[in-house]
Design goal:
This protein is mostly helical. Helix content is 60%, strand content 0%.
């Protein structure tokens, strides 16, 4: 079944988000949720507890909890890099 797209304003979700000024906010929330999930999954795969992860990162357990909280998007790049390194991984950032 072919879906015909209306050509009007806000005909796509991205367009609507752009019009309301929410697109960058929604994208940043989505990126943080994915990163928190990826770190959590990598920890599970490697059998790393939160206490061990915090120790490897040289941080507190409460700071790690903030990093893993998908709703807390106030995380620095250096914190993400330390988390990745603690799991033998790396982060990649790019402008698209």
């Amino acid at each position: 079944m072919s879906r015909k797209r209306a050509g009007g304003v806000g005909s796509r979700f991205d367009d609507l988000m752009r019009e309301t000024g929410d697109l960058e906010y929604v994208k940043s929330k989505a990126v943080k949720r994915v990163l928190a999930w990826q770190i959590t999954e990598a920890m599970k795969k490697k059998g790393v507890t939160k206490a061990e992860m915090a120790k490897r990162m040289g941080t507190s357990r409460s700071q790690l909890d903030r990093l893993l909280d998908p709703d807390n998007d106030d995380v620095s790049v250096s914190t993400l890099a330390r988390a990745a390194a603690a799991l033998g991984r790396e982060i990649r950032l790019e402008l698209a």
